[in-house]
Design brief:
It catalyses: a phosphate monoester + H2O = an alcohol + phosphate. One of its GO terms (molecular function) is metal ion binding. By secondary structure, the protein is an alpha+beta fold. It folds into two domains: 332 residues, Metallo-dependent phosphatases (Purple Acid Phosphatase, chain A, domain 2); 86 residues, Purple acid phosphatase-like, N-terminal (Immunoglobulin-like), CATH 2.60.40.380. Strands 1, 15, 16, 17, 18, 19, 20, 21 and 22 form a nine-stranded mixed beta sheet that branches. A six-stranded mixed beta sheet has the order 14-13-12-23-24-25. Helix 5 runs parallel beside helix 6. The termini are far apart. The structure holds 2-acetamido-2-deoxy-beta-D-glucopyranose and fe (ii) ion. The site of fe (ii) ion has 7 residues, from loops.
C-alpha cells in the first residue's frame, strides 16, 4: 500500500471505532494511542526589517459583529493606520488606531499598533496593509452573519515542531474564528519568544480572527523586577473587552457574539480574581443574564485550567473556580466548556456538580496544541464514568454549529503528520431542550 492509502485506511478505522463507540455513551474510553516525544522549539529568526517600518506579527480579532481589530508590530515608529478594501492592491478605506510598547527587564518591545476597522460585510474577503507599508499585503475573511459557523479550538500552542504540525492542519480547515483557551507562546519571561510566536502564527492569525483568554504562561510576573502580571500578553493580544453587550473592562475575561448573535462565547480568566465579590463574577452574572436563549442557540465558555479533568496533571487546579462559577453556567444552560492547561485531550459527558446531568455543559480539555513541555499521559485510574474519551496526543478541535439545535464537535489528532479524526460528538443546544427549560420563560442564572 502507498503511504496515503495506508494513512487513509487507518483514519477510517479510527473513525469507525469512534463512531461505533458513540451510541454507548456510558462507555468511558481511554485511547491506547501513545505519542512520540515532544519536538524541538522552532527557531524563527527575525525578518530583515531594513526600514524599521515593515509590519510583522499581524493578527486580527473581532470587535462586535462587524468590526475587526488589526494588531501589528514595527521596529521603529510607524503610523497606526490600516488601509483596506475588497480588491487586492486597492484600499479605499482606512482607520487610525494607537501605538503602545513595553519594557520587560532589559527587553524593549517594538512599536505595538492596533486599529479597529469597519463596519465590514459578513463572509467577505478584505485586503489590507499596515502602516501604509507597500511591501506586505494581508487578507482576511469576515465571519458569516448567520449559521452555520465554524470554530477551531485549541490551547497550549507553544512554538515547536508539533505546533507547526497543528497549525498546518488548522490551515487546511475552512474555519471562521479560532478560539484559544490560553498558553500561547511559552515565552516564559524571554520576551523575544513572544515575537517569534507572533511571526509563527501570523499566516493564520492575520487571515481569521483569533480570540483567546489567558493561561498561566501569560502571567510572567517576576518578584520585585516585574510585579505587574500579563504585561506582554495584554500589550500584544488585546481582546474586545470594551465592546459588545456586556463590556467587562478587563482583557483577562470578556464575551462576544458571532453569527448574528446565534452563538455567545464567554472567555473566562483562570488567573485573575473569580471568587465571591470579584469583578469577574459580577460581570459573568451580568453577561449571562443578558443572553436571550430564545435568540442565542448556543453558549460556549472557555477557561484555561479545566473544571473537570481525569488526567493526573493539574488535578484539582480548576476546583475553586468551578465552585465559584459552575452554578451560573448551569443556570444559563451553557452548552459546552473548553479548557486548556492539561496537555492532552479529554471529553466529558454533560456534567453538573460532579455528576452526569443532561442539562449541564459538555466539558472538553483541548490543551494539546504542541508546546515544548510535552504531553500529560498519566491518567487517574479507573477512568471516571463522566469521562467519555481521553487521549494524550497533540491535535486540535473543531466546533461546527450547523443550525440552531445541532453542533458537531470533532477532535483532530496530529497522528504524526496526518490529521485524523479521533473523537466526535453531536452537541445539541440546551436552549432547545424542553426538559432543561421547565418553568422558565427566560433563563435566569442562579444568584440573581
Ligand atoms: C439541524 O442539523 C441536524 C444535523 O445535521 C439535522 O439533523 C436537523 O434536522 C437540522 N435541523 C433543522 C431545523 O434543519
Ligand atoms: Fe497552562
Amino acid at each position: 500500500m502507498t503511504t496515503p492509502t495506508r494513512a487513509m485506511a487507518l483514519a477510517l478505522l479510527v473513525l469507525a471505532a469512534t463512531v461505533l463507540s458513540l451510541p454507548t455513551a456510558s462507555l468511558a474510553v481511554t485511547s491506547p494511542y501513545v505519542r512520540p516525544p515532544p519536538r524541538e522549539t522552532l527557531s524563527l529568526f527575525k525578518d530583515d526589517d531594513a526600514d524599521g517600518q515593515t509590519p510583522e506579527q499581524v493578527h486580527i480579532s473581532m470587535v462586535g459583529l462587524d468590526k475587526m481589530r488589526v494588531s501589528w508590530i514595527t521596529d521603529d515608529d510607524a503610523p497606526a493606520i490600516v488601509e483596506y478594501g475588497t480588491t487586492s492592491g486597492q484600499y479605499p478605506f482606512s482607520a487610525t488606531g494607537s501605538t503602545t510598547s513595553y519594557k520587560y527587564v532589559f527587553y524593549h518591545s517594538g512599536k505595538i499598533h492596533d486599529a479597529v476597522i469597519g463596519p465590514l460585510q459578513p463572509s467577505t474577503t478584505y485586503y489590507y496593509r499596515c502602516s501604509s507599508n507597500p511591501s506586505r499585503e494581508f487578507s482576511f475573511r469576515t465571519p458569516p452573519a448567520t449559521l452555520p459557523f465554524k470554530f477551531v479550538i485549541v490551547g497550549d500552542f507553544g512554538q515547536t515542531g508539533w505546533t507547526d504540525s497543528t497549525l498546518k492542519h488548522i490551515a487546511d480547515a475552512d474555519y471562521d474564528v479560532l478560539l484559544l483557551p490560553g498558553d500561547l507562546s511559552y515565552a516564559d519571561f524571554i520576551q523575544s519568544r513572544w515575537d517569534s510566536y507572533g511571526r509563527l502564527v501570523e499566516p493564520l492569525a492575520s487571515a481569521r480572527p483569533w480570540m483567546m483568554t489567558e493561561g498561566n504562561h501569560e502571567i510572567e510576573k517576576l518578584p520585585l523586577v516585574e510585579p505587574k502580571p500579563f504585561k506582554a500578553y495584554n500589550a500584544r493580544w488585546r481582546m474586545p473587552y470594551d465592546a459588545g453587550a456586556s463590556p467587562s473592562g478587563s482583557n483577562l475575561y470578556y464575551s462576544f457574539d458571532v453569527a448574528g448573535g446565534a452563538v455567545h462565547v464567554v472567555m473566562l480568566g483562570s488567573y485573575t480574581d473569580y471568587g465571591a465579590g470579584s469583578a469577574q463574577l459580577r460581570w459573568l452574572r451580568r453577561d449571562l443574564a443578558a443572553v436571550d436563549r430564545g435568540r442565542t442557540a448556543f453558549v460556549v465558555a472557555l477557561v484555561h485550567a479545566p473544571w473537570y479533568n481525569s488526567n493526573e496533571a493539574h488535578q484539582g487546579e480548576g476546583d475553586a473556580m468551578r465552585a465559584a462559577m459552575e452554578d451560573l453556567l448551569y443556570g444559563a444552560r451553557v452548552d459546552a466548556v473548553f479548557a486548556g492547561h492539561v496537555h492532552a485531550y479529554e471529553r466529558f459527558a454533560r456534567v453538573y456538580n460532579g455528576k452526569a446531568d443532561p442539562c449541564g455543559p459538555v466539558y472538553v480539555t483541548i490543551g494539546d496544541g504542541g508546546n515544548r513541555e510535552g504531553l500529560a499521559d498519566k491518567y487517574v485510574d479507573p477512568q471516571p464514568a463522566i469521562s467519555a474519551f481521553r487521549e494524550a496526543s497533540f491535535g486540535h478541535g473543531r466546533l461546527e454549529v450547523v443550525n440552531a439545535t445541532h453542533a458537531l464537535w470533532t477532535w483532530h489528532r496530529n497522528d504524526d503528520d496526518e490529521p485524523v479524526v479521533a473523537d466526535q460528538v453531536w452537541i445539541t443546544s440546551l436552549a432547545a431542550n424542553p426538559a432543561c427549560n421547565k418553568n422558565k420563560n427566560k433563563i435566569c442564572p442562579l444568584g440573581l
